[in-house]
Design a protein that fits this description.
Layout lengths: L1 H21 L2 E5 L7 H5 L2 H11 L3 E4 L4 H9 L5 E4 L1 H11 L2 E6 L7 E6 L14 E4 L5 H13 L10 E4 L3 H10 L4 E5 H9 L8 E6 L7 E4 L5 H12 L7 H7 L4 E3 L6 H9 L4
Parallel strand pairs: 1-2, 1-3, 6-7, 6-8
Antiparallel strand pairs: 3-10, 4-10, 4-11, 5-8, 5-9
């Protein structure tokens, strides 16, 4: 009887394992350029690449908000996620997500402050009395670090700016400044450069007037419980990407090369988030 029970238990465990492997791996990305159907379709080559590299069907999803991405990792709806620095440190503190891999550029990232090409704004001090636009309130390069830079420049956003608002994404911030709906704004340097290169933003109508100090930003992370072997395959899939060979994927990821990520590199950003009471 004991042998039969043990054999039955082994079959059940084996069946559960097969069922888990038959489920697609769900990969989420914060909506830093918007959560639209078009933005999901643009990620199709990335989905195909990861499916091949991981040997498992992959679904790429873009949750409706930065916070929704964090919560999806917490409730197990996602297996992997692409976070900004602030959302990563939040997800790590709340759910123990595991940092895996990031672009080399993420080790020294910047926020760009932009204004209209003919604007008299030339410095952070010139923002006093102006209409300013941030990205998402949970964005590192669109809110956390720009807010910190303003504070360091002794600018109180509540008292010194005429108005400020949140656009929800980096492209929306860029377009608000380009159209004149806002006097100035702050956004992710890689999104700004990509929009200029792709003709989605008129470089004759906007200009950068201030670049933030460098900080550690975006990172791919896994939820606790994902098979370590799958995590390693995920890391290797990104590290083996090469310019001239995987340009389509690298364009989607707005990067040139990837390296392993380490939680310790986020200590300064974590301290800034705590100082500004955003963590």
């Amino acid at each position: 009887m004991r042998i039969r029970i043990s054999a039955f238990a082994a079959i059940v465990v084996f069946s559960i394992g097969l069922a888990a492997q038959s489920q697609p791996l769900r990969v989420g990305m914060i909506p830093d350029v918007g959560a639209t159907q078009a933005s999901v379709l643009e990620k199709a080559p990335l989905k195909a690449y990861l499916t091949k590299q991981l040997g498992r069907e992959v679904e790429v999803v873009i949750p409706t908000s930065y916070n929704a991405t964090v919560e999806a990792m917490g409730n197990g709806s996602l297996d992997f996620a692409y976070f900004g620095g602030l959302t990563y440190v939040k997800a790590h503190a709340m759910y123990g997500v595991i940092p895996l891999v990031q672009r080399t550029s993420d080790l020294e990232f910047h926020s760009l402050f932009i204004a209209g090409a003919n604007s008299p704004i030339r410095s952070l001090a010139d923002l006093k009395g102006r209409n300013f636009v941030f990205g998402d309130s949970n964005s590192t390069s669109g809110h956390l670090m720009p807010y910190y830079e303003l504070k360091q420049a002794h600018i109180d956003v509540d008292k010194d700016l005429k108005t400020f608002r949140y656009s929800g994404s980096h492209p929306a911030t860029a377009k608000a400044v380009e159209s004149g709906a806002a006097d100035a704004g702050a956004l992710d340097e890689s999104v700004f450069n990509a929009m200029i290169a792709e003709g989605k933003l008129d470089k004759a109508r906007v200009r950068v007037f201030y670049t933030s100090r460098p900080f550690v930003d975006y990172v791919w992370a896994a939820r606790p419980g994902v098979d370590p072997a799958i995590q390693e395959k995920f890391v290797q899939a990104f590290i083996r990407l090469k310019e001239g060979q995987d340009d389509e994927i690298l364009r989607i990821l707005r990067g040139k090369a990837f390296v392993r990520a380490n939680d310790e590199t986020y200590s300064v950003l974590r301290a800034v988030a705590q100082e500004l009471k955003l963590l």
